[in-house]
Design a protein that fits this description.
With about 170 residues, this protein is of the alpha/beta class. Helix content is about 35%, strand content about 25%. The chain has 5 helices and 5 strands, in the order E-H-E-E-H-H-E-H-E-H. It has a 5-stranded mixed β-sheet with strand order 3-2-1-4-5, with helices on both faces. Strand 1 (about 5-10), helix 1 and strand 2 (about 40-50) form a beta-alpha-beta unit. Helix 3 runs parallel beside helix 4 (about 135-145). The longest helix has 17 residues, at about 20-35. It is globular. The two termini are about 30 Å apart.
């Protein structure tokens, strides 16, 4: 029996308003596919916005939030995804690296396929405020956990976001 651990990392900034329904549907379809495949699975959910202060974001923002620790309960996972809400905005860049690091930091099982499915609209800060995370620190952390494969799904047309997430996935 195949085994997989998956973490969904989802941008929940206000700029996702036009695409969050599609993102939720895509994530739920993945959950259903994995759950119906007979795979021994665990799925977690992390969301992100930005630094909760100007000029980056606003009060109520957060750099990352674990919405659901690893779970094998399909209904719990789907309800968590469908319950995600949007907020905040500020600048065009987001705290994507904090969210990636939160996902990478999950308690992965040894010897299983590890995937981080990253839904993003905006580009990450090149060097994240407060944490100092950058593409290289995220890639190094992902490789250190066996590795965890990062698969970004861009839902916008930002060239900066595309370049950053392609570099992260390639690493």
């Amino acid at each position: 029996q195949s085994k997989t651990d998956i973490v969904f990392v989802i941008d929940t900034t206000g700029s996702m308003a036009g695409s969050i329904a599609q993102v939720k549907a895509s994530a739920v379809a993945t959950v259903n596919e994995v759950a119906n495949s007979g795979t021994d699975f665990r799925i977690g959910v992390v969301t992100y916005r930005d630094v909760p202060e100007a000029p980056y974001g606003e009060a109520g923002d957060y750099q990352s939030k674990i919405e659901l620790a690893f779970s094998s309960n399909k209904n719990t996972i789907i309800n968590t995804i469908n319950g995600l809400t949007l907020g905040g905005e500020g600048d065009a860049q987001e705290s994507a690296f904090s969210a990636a690091m939160a996902g990478i930091g999950f308690p992965w099982r040894n010897g299983v396929e590890k995937a981080i499915i990253f839904y993003a609209e905006g580009a990450p800060h090149p060097i994240e405020p407060i944490t100092g995370y950058n593409i290289l620190s995220v890639v190094a952390a992902a490789l250190a956990v066996d590795p965890a494969e990062i698969s970004p799904i861009l839902v916008g047309d930002s060239a900066d976001a595309r370049a950053a997430f392609q570099q992260m996935a390639a690493g």
